[in-house]
Model the fold of this input.
Amino acid sequence: MTNMASAPSEITCGTPAMAAAVPDEMVDAIAITGRPAEVRDQLKQWEDLSDHVLLYSPSVGMKPGRVAENVDAIIDTFRH
Done:
């Protein structure tokens, strides 16, 4: 576990700082983002690696209405 007292000075607490500290390459490696067709294509990479996929919209620091919009978009993207 990292001791925040010894963490580099560029890492601070708070949602914007935490988001800025995560490189795009990490997001690409662990998350699926994009337009509906892109997301469906990206999800195919996980087909042989998992029995179940968790589809989750970020919610920390977001207004409830925006979270609801994201959840609706996920549902619409994967509705058969």
